[in-house]
Amino acid sequence: MTTKIVVVTSGKGGVGKTTTSASFATGLAMRGFKTCVIDFDVGLRNLDLIMGVERRVVYDLINVVNDEIKLTQALIKDKQIDKLYILAASQTRDKDALKQEGVERVLGELKEMEFDFIICDSPAGIETGALMAMHYADEALVVTNPEVSSVRDSDRILGMLSSKTKRAIEGGEPVKEHLLITRYNPNRVEGGQMLSLDDIHEILRTPLIGVIPESDSVLQASNQGLPAIHMQGSDVAEAYKDVVARFLGEDKPMRFTEAVKPGWFKRVFGAK
Amino acid sequence: MGESKAEFTRESGGRRSASRTGAFELKSRRFSLLGLVLHSADMAELAADWAERAGAGGFEHEPVVIDLSGVPRAAAVSAAEGQAPLALDGPAPVDLRAIVALLRASQLQPVAVTGATAEELALAHELGLADAADEPAAERAAAAPAEVVREVVVEKIVEKHAAPAPTLVVDKPLRSGQRVYAKGGDLVVLALVNHGAEVIADGSVHVYAPLRGKAIAGARGDTSARIYAHSLEAELLAIAGIYRTTENPLPADVAGKPAQVLLDGEKLLMQPLAF
User: Fold this and answer.
1) Which of the two ends of chain B, N or C, has the fewest CB atoms closer than 10 A to its terminal CB?
2) pTM
3) pLDDT tens-digit profile of A216-270?
4) Predicted ipTM?
């Protein structure tokens, strides 16, 4: 199997790119694929926090891009999941330190190490960091919240995926785009406070790979330094597992998209 | 222009190409060209003014007609008895050679002169420029038979524009931040044009999908240009500089429906299209 490079991007900040990168990479590794997740958010690194490897970061992406150390020295192996590796961003540098030749070389070396998937966690915005994260992508997860400004920014990013990436510039097969809606709350959609799945599809017309419900367990997970997909029994973990399955070509019906009225049990004992 | 990689397609020939005879046809054609209207024959003054106002360039080898009909001439010319020998006493001829060099340096392609004196016309022919005869020129250059002149014009221009203005066809969605400009012709978009995208054409704009961004037709002043959309939701509509935003919502009979937009005098008309 050849290495597939997947960028997780959105344009807008705070929509759940890093949460998604962490859970998606973990999910792929749980399925037995050798996976590396790279934090491209140089200067504002978060992925290592969410992956719970913050204290193990010695070298980072910029050190490797600048050829100061070997790639293997910077790769952090996950303690829970075999075959999962993390490449952290530098906190003390800025995005201009991301040189295109260096990024290309790092990705090339990861391919030589026979990784199945490389997940690039893009920074917000449309500048160097985001462009570098998407440049070599084969596929893209575009993360969107159900509100107008997030959808508009995703539209902008979709435009850049189809014009600024290596595939687009060289005129090859376009980057395969997947839309992932996070923080979806069906009850608030019914109340008209959030855009519905149909509204979003009508604007973006990009195939939907999954819907992650709004949930407190995401917050709990990131505070514990645990990818949300590890939160056993939570809707969010199930939804991310569905995303991984769909990405691997399995047919899974959408879940957690219908509004539910709290039953008598919940009304008596309170919502969890 | 535009981030989208669009392909150029060309309209095929004339409308009645069915009965094709021979490898070419000589047809009378009308083209709209840039005209350089001179107000002075003083080359130094002209060069300085050109450098100041147009020196930055930005032209893309567009054809231009040098219009000399506005150049102030000395009154002496009018004396008919002068005839040929007295041509030396006529007005100082405009230095066409210098003007042509000036225009070429700015990526403009002079193709013809109009309003030239017989002497200037001779020089123009020498420089490979045709005489674009219109009324003042016909009066002035009485020596040149009109028919001959017209033939030259046709040949000259048809050479430069072998086909009608190309139509630009875009088959990928245009998303926020993307812009496509169909220079000199129509723009056809086969996929959606989202909020924040811009579709611009010197001719008409056709969008066979929802049009949500900005649409600008007749960007260089063609008032007959129109905008057609399969679902009209545009945030801005403009034809030949007359525009409207959707600050006041589109009329209910066209909003989100197939519609065309055209110019009626100074007013944009929006009409539903029934298929």
Assistant:
1) C
2) 0.67
3) 999 999 999 999 999 999 999 999 999 999 999 999 999 999 887 666 666 666 5
4) 0.79
Which tokens belong to A125?
A: 């915005």
Measured CA distances, B73 to A59, A200, B55, B69, B93 (Å): 80, 67, 27, 9, 9
Band of pLDDT at residue B83, cut at 50, 70 and 90: very low
The answer, yes or no, to whether residue B144 has pLDDT greater than 50, is no
Distance CA A252, CA B62 (A): 57
Q: What is the pLDDT of residue B116?
A: 80
Residue type at A269 in one-letter notation: F
**Is the separation of the CB atoms in A60 and A90 below 8 Å?**
yes
Scan for tokens 């007013």, then name that residue.
B267
Give me the torsion for CA of A77, A83, A165, A46, rounded to 10°.
Answer: -40
Distances (CA, A) of B60 to A136, B57, B102, B128: 34, 9, 15, 20
Chain B residues closer than 8 Å to A9 by CB: none
The answer, for B7 touching chain A at a CB cutoff of 8 Å, is no
Of B169, B183, B265, B252, which Cα lies nearest the Cα of B220? B183
Q: Which residues contact B19 (CB under 8 A, 6 or more apart)?
A: none
CB hemisphere CA count around A255 (13 angstroms): 13
Q: Which amino acid is at A58?
A: V
Write the residue in A156, A171, A204 that is nearest to B196 by C-beta: A156
Residue B47, both tokens: 């060069």
Preferred mutation among B170, B171, B176 to probe A, highest tally of A CBs within 10 A = B176
- Measure the CA–CA gap between B193 and B196, rounded to whole angstroms: 9
Size of interface A-B (CB pairs under 8 A): 42
Q: How far apart are CA A182 and CA B39, in angstroms?
A: 65
